[in-house]
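Z., the sequence and structure:
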Amino acid sequence: MDDEAVITKNLFVKKGFAGFSDIFTTFYWKGYWDANSGLYRPLSLIVFAIEWAFFPEKSSFFHFVQVALYTITVVALYNMLCRLFKETNKWLSFGIALLFALHPLHTEVVANIKSLDEVLSLLFFILSTNWLIKKDGYSWQSCLFFFLALLSKEGAITFIPVWFLLFIQIKGQSVIRAFKNVLPLLITGAIWLLIRTLVINSGSPVVPYTYADNSILACDDLLTQRLTAITILGKNLLHFIYPVGMSYDYSYPQIPCATFTSVELWLALIFLLALLATAIYYFKRKPIISFGIFFFYLTAILTSNILFTIGATMADRFMFIPLLGLLIAICYIGFEASDNLKNRKAGLISVSILGVAIILGMLTHNNNKAWESNDILFSTHAKNVPNSARAQYNYGTVLLNHSINNNNDGINNAFETLSIANKLDPKNPDAKVNLGITNYRLQNFSTAANLLKEALHIKKDDMTRLSLADTYLKLKQQDSAIALYKQALKNNVYNENTHVRIGASFFAAKQFKQAAEMFRQGTIAYPSNSELWMNYGNSLAADSDFKGAIPAFEHAYQINPSQKTALYYLALTYHNLGDDNKANTFMQRYQTEK
């Protein structure tokens, strides 16, 4: 997933402590690429840089830290809830924390190391809230932890209205007093916003999102986009209630654009409005229930795409913090309904919560298995989101790589999956490239060429040029192949076969000097490739440069003693030079060793 961008290939993170200044003064992705998406989340990158300084490349340590911080967060959550609901049965706080800890929607956050930003944001919210409760108002500690939450993830700004409601509904303060208590937090948020704005504006221009980032941008108009966003929020709620069939990806066109005739829209809208009406109705009557529901709405609003469009359609991680509010409301209702709210006994409701927790734990354990590696994740989740072009592309790529490594075994499965990906999103050049490579391996060279040309038209990419050039060679279109090879080489992009194939094209056209030069460049790039040295020698010999050919053949044999043909060519070359003694010597060696 994104671990490559924020850890293993992030230049700033891999500097360790020396990368701190770059991390704090640049936008989120700067250490990986120059695509400024308007994100500023330095704190998780700082943690990664510290981990890398002591344990570079040790993914197990990064996972250990992730799980440890998640565990600390859950324990801190229980402690905060006990403070917040000190007049109620502590089993209520325990039940909320337990269900939160084990919910399957959290698999992505804990298993995907990049999502440490989510964990840190919630942890610092909890620590800040603890100080607010302890002081019955603001303190410098609460402001400090809030600032750290903001440095973890921008969505922490929604904690301000949550705290405002907490003071009013849970602590019973007046509106004026509650406002005075959150004012320092507002100032803290303003300071963070100023820093964030300066950092984002100092980078490259913010790149606008496309349908590939967020599929609602493929919807016709703003109204349709917002209706779709409401539907998506409803889907998130469904996954909270029935956590089955989740995925790492819900991108285009997995979730269709909603209209006023969409059943899913109306189901989501009715449920969401009913939930909101409940929060309003119980605002004073049962403030904890109301607070829990409002907590959900306030912390979910920024990632819901309802107010504005963000860089993702839907994600399990978007429910990481909002889910807490729903658990507060549901568990409180359960304890109140069972008349177990004020006593200290576990009661039937606690046993029921334990039963639900066991089921959630089993589901989470099953979900975790898919996150063992990218290959397992892509192959497992492709079934859950059959209409996601990206998910099908990723799975098809896994199948293609497997077939390449296993002599085309399973190539037909790769073809079918990548064909689906290309059909779902015909504008995706990467899917066309891999489908083109699949057709190449199936020897459908004309189809492969057409797909690769389409991909190159959408996105100018030298690796695609190389693949298309290889395909042109199979179609015996040498001139077209050579032109593409030269263009890629001009941009210093090549692989171990590039020089061999372009040199072979020159050789076939009897342009021996050009062939020799291309093979010579190949021996510089790949000095241990015996095939390149053999071809270099052959081209020189074909151009009557026998003296130059001899060291090339000798080097090929030295690198790879099983390359017996080099002995045969050495014999022929010495014969052409008139040195029959050496020619006979190498011919005898060739006949003896072959």
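The chain has a mean pLDDT of 93. Residues 1-57+112-206 form one domain.

Let me know what you think.
H.
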